[in-house]
Amino acid sequence: MRIDGHTRLAAVVATPIKHSISPFIHNYAFDKTGVNGVYVAWDIPEIDLEETLKNVKRYDMWGVNISMPYKQSVIPFMDELTDAAQLIGAVNTVIHRDGKLIGHNTDGIGFFRSLSTFADFDVKGKVMTILGGGGAATALIAQAALNGASCINIFNQSAFLEETREKAQALSQKTGVVIEVYPIENLMLVQEKVMESDLFVNATSVGMDGKSMIIGEDFVFPENIMVADVIYQPFETPFLKLARSHDLKAINGLGMLLFQAAAAFEEWTGKEMPTDEIWQALEEKYQG
Q1: Integer Cα distance of 182 and 189 in angstroms
Q2: What's the mean per-residue pLDDT of the chain?
Q3: 115: closest CA among 140, 145, 133?
Q4: Do 78 and 54 touch, CB atoms closer than 8 A?
Q5: Which residue in 29, 102, 28, 98 sits closest to 64, CA to CA?
Q6: Residue 287: pLDDT band by 50, 70, 90 thresholds?
Q7: DSSP letter at 21?
């Protein structure tokens, strides 16, 4: 990697963010593609967020990635929003193009590219059941709708059902996709809807401890259903382990992490990220 007077900067903005592996992914890509860029992590307080976004223009940066808790907070500082960012109501990628800051969201794009790459799965015309209604879930739901899913079943905590239903209704009206919202506490209903589904996703944090799982060990999976988890640490959650014990295809969140980064990199540079090489390095790091 060269650093000279022409080197352009990119960064991930959040707090906390020093643990991020995004610098590894993007700097690997800059090096292998020959693009003259460097990617760093900026841990900033919210009071500095507006000035930080101004600096993207001031220093002619490629752009920035946005992580929690700023995915909604940055929206007022954008000049434009892509369709994905508008539907999701959150930004994870800021593209600096023609003097403007364009808010985009590549989380859902990354998730479905991961399923396509590693499991040859396309959500178009399919039924998806998803556990969770937070930021990650919303990105996947919106992208599934944009990709032409036939029906999406959302299971979220009862305390947030009204808010989830409002978002689902707005998204359904914009895309024409049938989206239903149910209480996640009703495991019999989860079972019923999964039996009618082609894709079953855990988009909650349950399972990050390597022990917990929303569904029980006696849960019944329909034949050939695609199963996915947004979690990648641990590499195999109890949810994925259970699915694989039924000989089902089950994908963790590491591919989503890689491909959402790839989509951002390609928007910034116009170059394709060498995802095969980077995936091998990530798999070794996290599977070990």
Answers
A1: 8
A2: 95
A3: 140
A4: no
A5: 102
A6: confident
A7: S
Active site residue 71: yes
- The DSSP symbol for 134 reads S
Tokens describing residue 114: 């991961």
CB neighbours (10 Å) of residue 247?
10
- b vs e for 6-26, b when ≥16 Cβ sit within 10 Å of the residue's Cβ? eebbbbbbbbebeebbbbebb
How do residues 128-179 score in pLDDT, each as one tens digit? Answer: 999 999 888 999 999 999 999 999 999 999 999 999 999 999 999 999 999 9
Cα separations (Å) of 78 from 59, 71, 242?
Answer: 16, 12, 42
pLDDT for res 63 = 98
Residue 9: CB partners within 8 Å, gap ≥ 6? 37, 38, 39, 40, 59, 61, 62
CA distance 155 to 195: 14
With CA atoms as reference, report the closest residue to 89 among 67, 73, 102, 68: 73
**pLDDT on residue 211:** 96
pLDDT above 80 for 1: no
Dihedral of the CA atoms 171, 174, 180, 185 (nearest 10)?
0
Average pLDDT value for residue range 65-78: 94
CB neighbour list of residue 144: distance below 8 Å, 6 or more residues apart: 108, 112, 123, 128, 152, 177
Round to whole Å and give the CA distance between 125 and 225: 14
What type of residue sits at position 165?
Answer: R
Map tokens 């001031």 to a residue: 58
- Tell me the C-alpha distance between 254 and 13, whole Å: 20
**Who contacts 270 (Cβ-Cβ below 8 Å, separation ≥6)?**
none
Which of 18, 32, 54, 71 does the annotation list as catalytic? 71
What tokens were used for 25?
């992914």
